[in-house]
Amino acid sequence: MRGADRKASRSRSTAVAAGLLALGVLAGCSSGTPEPLTKPPYTVDSVRFGLVKPSDLGEGATEIKDNGHSSHVVYTPPNSIPTCPYVQRSENVEVDVEPAIEPVGGNPTGRTIVAPELVGPSSLPVVTQGAVVFQSASLADTTMNTVVAESGKCPATFSVLGGPPSVVGDYKVGSRSIEINGWKGFAQHLVHTSPPEVNPDTYDDLVTVVVHKANAIVYVGYAQIKSVGKRADSDEKVKALMETTLARLG
Known about the structure:
Keywords: Signal. This is DUF5642 domain-containing protein. It comes from Micromonospora viridifaciens. The protein has one domain (3-249): Protein Transport Mog1p, Chain A (3-Layer(aba) Sandwich), CATH 3.40.1000.70. Helix content is 18%, strand content 31%. The chain is built from 5 helices and 11 strands, in the order αααββββββαβββββα. The protein has helices spanning 3-11, 44-47, 54-57, 137-151, 234-246; strands at 61-65, 81-82, 100-101, 106-108, 112-116, 126-134, 157-160, 169-180, 183-193, 202-213, 216-227. The strands form 2 sheets. Strands 1, 4, 5, 6, 7, 8, 9, 10 and 11 form a 9-stranded antiparallel sheet that branches. The chain has a two-stranded antiparallel sheet with strand order 2-3. Strand 10 and strand 11 form a beta hairpin. 47% of the residues are buried.
């Protein structure tokens, strides 16, 4: 995020570089796989063990509950699961695609943010995360199928021509399947570049991971602000982070 929008977002420690939902240097992460703290079937309380903690990111990270998500420049309902961040801001998308899916019959954990106080090219990432727990694995399966189908509609490229400077620009999207400790889903990589006259120096590197196991769905949005010329690496870093966090769920 940039300009006045980034300053406002920093004050909330929510400089989320995409409508949702990334990873920085994993300082402070354990080098070994943690012992599981719980196992299926999951509850709202137990599935929180698999969410990212400030200690997973490193010194300077803090956690807040995302009570003010409706004030973000890219709004999605707090109990929703991301499918195509930022697309609701675009004027040139030719397909009907939702930025997020609101599940039916699930109990959400609520959305939380783990981030440094100040966000920039040299800072820790901003992680926006949550989960939905269902009464049965079959309900979770059905919901995950809906989420995957909707995310598959997300266009490979789109643009945002108007709105806050932090979201104006071009977006490139790629997706791949992912499996971590028995959790299966997808990782969607989004790169946002601003017009040169708005911000020629940095770009947004966001990966949204949505995974499912047993009766739960977990999502993590991992955002970095990268200097132009630096390689986008959120995809590989979020995988390393979630290998640690999801191992706690057994």
